[in-house]
Write a structure and sequence with these properties.
Layout (H helix, E strand, L loop, with lengths): L10 E9 L3 E13 L2 E6 L2 E3 L4 E2 L7 E5 L4 E7 L6 E5 L6 E6 L4 E5 L4 H4 L44 E9 L11 E8 L2 E8 L2 E9 L3 E7 L2 E7 L9 E9 L2 H16 E3 L10 E3 L3 H5 L2 H11 L2 H8 L2 H12 L9 E5 L5 H8 L4 E6 L3 H10 L2 H4 L2 E5 L11 E6 L11 H12 E8 L2 E9 L2 H9 L18 H9 L3 E3 L11 E6 L10 E9 L4 E15 L4 E5 L11 E12 L4 E11 L3 E11 L5 H4 L2 E9 L4 E2 L27
Parallel strand pairs: 7-9, 20-21, 20-23, 21-22, 23-24, 26-35
Antiparallel strand pairs: 1-2, 1-10, 2-3, 2-4, 3-8, 4-5, 6-7, 11-12, 11-17, 12-13, 13-14, 15-16, 16-17, 18-19, 25-27, 25-29, 26-31, 28-32, 29-30, 29-31, 32-33, 33-34
Helix pairs in contact: 6-7
Length: 661
């Protein structure tokens, strides 16, 4: 078998070796190459702490697939000088080497640097993003080197992760370059991107840069400056390491800068103990449109079990999902399912119960760890479920899905903007004839009359009508305070008898809607009043349809049905409207998405002014307001009881008659 150094790909790692437990070895360089479906591993001479050297590993190895941990263990008997070790990869994972060499080497271990291994898979169906660390299994996206050998194309020295430099000098500068023939390589160690620069003929002499704290400056078309922050800086701006690198030409310089940015922007889901680890570029569609603080709080919220329990205990929600899956078992048997925003993993377990061939449970928050534990605790189902920690906008999966299942609904259906992630997952993962559970959603709207709610909100601002608050007149702020209170949409459960007109609906078909269509939603309003009353605002709720091949199931949050954890939403007008029976009410509901994962809502409602004084007041009375759905008034009432008998459907089913099974 040929020397790995002669292979098209060469990667390095360091073995930590104990010399009979007495003396730690340093700089044991390991070169890993690929030939067909085998790893080639060789180790150069190790260097003791005192500078003396010892022979490297020798002999052939036998591989044992350590499923389910994913470890590959090789027992080696050594006798002689440096040679190579052949390791057939039956199960991708960390290579853990243990050996004896006349009592000299007690144990050693290495982790193959996944960021470099990633290069080796050039075919589309074998392309993978990976991460690994010593002692942990290696996540893989559909690569089976045992049955599908990967052809490795020849690459030049300027390939993505390795660069031959003309020279490298330490700062402050000296009269001659520190390294005469330096090599620069990018690595990923335990989720941390690093740049290593070393002398080609002396690989143990390494300058290492943590890319989290490293800045790269272009000095000329072929010169660059790397400055790395000191680990002892403790939050202060203190730089301790700097080098000037010279490239052989402008093309290689540009390639290096691109590789530097790619490596710096890569993040890993491998910090947890999950068996599924995927590398992805940190800047995604989600990141570009989402405020970082909002995203942090969002994932923190859904990463807590108490909030997952709140949703699981919503028996309307959980029971309807369970019924939709089990009653349409034919859609799941033998199918690949992707659970978008899996949370606790409950929907993934439902899909596996229904006979899914495999389920990918995608979850970006720390709840992914709990989902992994919950799924592992159900071993009959766990073998068909893979937990993938990451955002759907960033991850890659090894195969297309036959079904997407998700619970992407927020308050008023669209709050939290997870519907957009659901649509992105559809475009990225769903097969052309695949199904979506849920299939579509409807926002329902109707004007309401609730004098008590109106007075409750108005009275909140009475505090600012005090003229002698500690001898201070607060009244100049009363109007502004009143406007603030009316800016908050009210989230609660209300009696449907408060509605003064028949509801209208706006349909969002998850199978066809474009992601950008959800950035701005404009709904014209037209109602006919059924009562002689005042209109205090617009009431909204939603429902979603699970359009299975066998049955249709509805999950509704209507005020006439058992209360869910979503409740309903009411936008209260600061200026009520007067209406009479049969009077037309027109207007508009306009929702604009913002970076805090929610919407600004504009409501305008108008009606003809009738009765005494109409001739002086014109022919229309109009009231409008703006609300921030991110900042609601949470005026929730106690949930009602619930029965699992949910065979009824909401009104307006005629609008869904054209939907195909």
């Amino acid at each position: 078998m040929s020397d790995p150094k002669a292979q098209p790909y060469r990667f390095e790692s360091t073995l930590t070796v104990l010399n009979n437990g007495l003396e730690e070895l340093k700089s044991w360089r390991v070169f890993v190459g690929l030939q067909h479906d085998e790893y080639l591993v060789s180790a150069s001479n190790a260097v003791l702490a005192d500078g003396s050297s010892v022979p490297g590993l020798v002999g052939n190895g036998t591989v044992f697939a350590g499923y389910p941990s994913g470890d590959l263990k090789t027992s080696i008997e050594t006798a002689g000088d440096l040679t190579q070790m052949s390791t057939r990869v039956d199960l991708l994972g960390d290579v853990i080497v243990s050996g004896q060499s006349q009592g000299l080497v007690q144990q050693c271990s290495t982790n193959i640097i996944a960021d470099e291994v990633e290069q080796m898979f050039s075919q589309d169906k074998a392309a993978a993003s990976m991460a690994c660390s010593c002692g942990k299994p290696l996540g893989v996206a559909g690569v089976n080197l045992k049955t599908e050998p990967v052809e490795i194309p020849q690459r030049q020295n300027e390939k993505e992760h390795e660069f031959l430099l003309a020279s490298m000098s330490q700062l402050p500068s000296t009269s001659s370059p520190t390294f005469a023939s330096p090599v620069a390589r990018f690595f990923l160690r335990s989720g941390i991107a690093e740049l290593h620069i070393h002398e080609e003929l002396e690989p143990e002499r390494v300058d290492s840069f943590d890319l989290r704290t490293t800045q790269l400056f272009k000095l000329s078309p072929v010169h660059g400056l790397c400055i790395s922050a000191s680990p002892e800086a403790k939050g202060k701006t203190a730089y301790s390491t700097g080098i000037v690198v010279q490239f052989r030409n402008e093309k290689e310089c540009s390639s290096f800068y691109r590789a530097f940015e790619r490596a710096k922007n890569k993040v890993s889901a491998q910090d947890s103990d999950l068996p599924n680890k995927i590398l992805s570029v940190s800047k995604s569609t989600f990141d570009e449109k989402t405020d970082p603080y909002s995203a942090e709080m969002y994932f923190h919220y859904y990463g807590r079990l108490l909030h997952q329990q709140n949703m699981l205990e919503d028996y309307v929600r959980t029971g309807t999902y369970y019924a939709a899956v089990t009653e349409n078992q034919a859609d799941f048997v033998g199918r690949v399912v992707v659970d978008v925003g899996a949370g606790s993993g409950i929907l993934s377990l439902f899909a596996a119960q229904a006979g899914a061939k495999h389920v990918y449970a995608v979850e970006a928050s720390e709840m992914a760890e709990y989902a992994s534990k919950l799924i592992a605790g159900n071993p009959l189902l766990a073998q068909r479920i893979t937990v993938v920690k990451g955002k759907v906008e960033e991850i890659e999966l090894p195969e297309k899905a036959d079904i997407l299942i998700s619970e992407p609904m927020g308050t008023l259906l669209v709050n939290e903007r997870m519907l957009e992630s659901y649509v992105i997952a559809r475009d990225q993962f769903l097969a052309p004839d695949g199904k979506m559970f849920p299939t579509l959603g409807r926002i329902h709207m109707a004007p309401f009359c609730d004098q008590n709610l109106y007075l409750e909100i108005a009275n909140k601002a009475l505090f600012w009508q005090q003229e002698a608050f500690y001898k201070v007149n607060l009244t100049p702020l009363h109007e502004a305070a009143s406007q603030e209170y009316f800016l908050q949409p009210v989230v609660d459960a209300f009696d449907e008898k408060l509605l003064v007109a028949r509801a209208i609906s706006h349909i969002i078909d998850f199978k066809s809607v474009k992601e950008e269509d959800l950035h701005e939603i404009d709904i014209p309003l037209r109602f006919v009043s059924t009562n002689d009353s005042q209109i205090h605002g617009l009431a909204c709720w939603f429902d979603v349809l699970f359009n299975g091949s066998t049955t249709q199931r509805w999950l509704t949050t209507a005020p006439s049905e058992p209360t869910t954890h979503w409740y309903q939403v009411r936008c209260v007008l600061s200026q009520p409207l007067d209406v009479m029976p049969g009077q037309e009410i027109t207007g508009r509901l306009h929702m604009i998405a913002h970076s805090a994962q929610s919407y600004i809502i504009h409501v305008t409602m108008s009606t003809e002014l009738r009765g005494p004084g109409a001739e002086q007041g014109g022919n229309l009375q109009t009231s409008s307001a703006k609300y921030n759905l991110k900042d609601p008034y949470l005026r929730m009432l106690q949930p009602q009881g619930f029965s699992l008998a949910q065979d009824h459907k909401p009104d307006h089913d005629a609008q869904i008659s054209l939907i195909e099974h």
